[in-house]
Write a structure and sequence with these properties.
Layout lengths: L1 E6 L3 H13 L5 E6 L14 H17 L6 H8 L3 H5 L5 H24 L5 H13 L13 H11 L9 H5 L5 H17 L6 H21 L11 H17 L1
Parallel strand pairs: 1-2
Helix pairs in contact: 1-5, 2-3, 2-7, 5-6, 5-7, 5-9, 6-9, 6-11, 9-10, 10-11
Length: 250
């Protein structure tokens, strides 16, 4: 059974649907599609096969070249198409990166809801949350043409570039960071569930996300800025975040 799940409002409904399929013994081959804010793009990439290929190839090329060296001209050459075709979908490469990250943030929120729901207590849920924040996206969760490993690396190296810009206030007026804020909101609710008296749940939730990215990057490229050894860098970051999280909440 192939399920096409368009995630717009209720992740709980998605969880209940998937749970029902498991209970009925149905095959859990499903595809996820997230509704991205229409202010980000000029034409919805999900509406055409070319648009989907533009995003897919953009992820691959940004991972290979880095965002600074990525251009629409290079993407067009890689796809054997024209720059004009790409500009019909995105105003510039910043908007394209924002679209890619919106997809990632939405997918991460889905994982937080779906994978944490069955766990027994808040401590187990927070421990699983740290695993999700520090490890590549699970390939088994939802069919997608996107290379999830590349996407994870892009988030680590490039995600701050969509909001560490001078125009961030103007960009934020279009609510294009809502999926990121929603993810932080869910993490904040988990923190409050574990310790209702903790005074800084939203600050801690965004700190966990950003620290996961920065420590993974530093451990790979600038290890003297971390306490990571030569091996098991992902596990180091997970241990560090777990220590930071529960000491803050104790």
């Amino acid at each position: 059974m192939l399920l096409l799940i368009i995630v717009k409002i209720s992740f709980v409904l998605v969880f209940l649907l998937l749970t029902l399929c498991y209970s009925k013994g149905l095959t859990m081959d499903y595809s996820l599609s997230f509704k991205v804010n229409e202010k980000i793009y000029l034409r919805d990439p999900e509406s055409t096969e070319l648009g989907k290929q533009i995003v897919k190839n953009a992820i691959d090329l940004i991972h290979t070249l880095g965002f600074e060296h990525f251009t629409f001209k290079k993407l067009a050459k890689e796809m054997n198409t024209t720059e004009a075709s790409i500009y019909r979908y995105f105003e510039n490469k910043h908007r394209m990166l924002l679209y890619i990250l919106n997809w990632y943030w939405s997918f991460m929120e889905y994982l937080v809801v779906f994978q944490l729901q069955p766990l027994a207590n808040s401590k187990e849920k927070l421990e699983r949350l740290v695993e999700l924040l520090t490890h590549p996206l699970p390939e088994s969760e939802g069919q997608s043409d996107y290379n999830k490993n590349y996407l994870h690396q892009i988030v680590i190296t490039e995600s701050s570039k969509v909001y560490l810009v001078k125009e961030v206030k103007e960009i934020n007026e279009d609510a294009v960071f809502k999926p990121y804020k929603d993810l932080c909101g869910r993490i904040s609710a988990l923190i409050q569930s574990h310790n209702p008296t903790y005074a800084f749940p939203h600050s801690l939730s965004s700190t966990l996300i950003e620290t996961a990215h920065s420590q993974l990057f530093f451990s790979q490229h600038l290890p003297k800025l971390t306490d990571a050894g030569k091996k098991h860098k992902t596990e180091f970051v997970a241990r560090y975040l777990t220590d930071l999280l529960f000491k803050s909440l104790s």
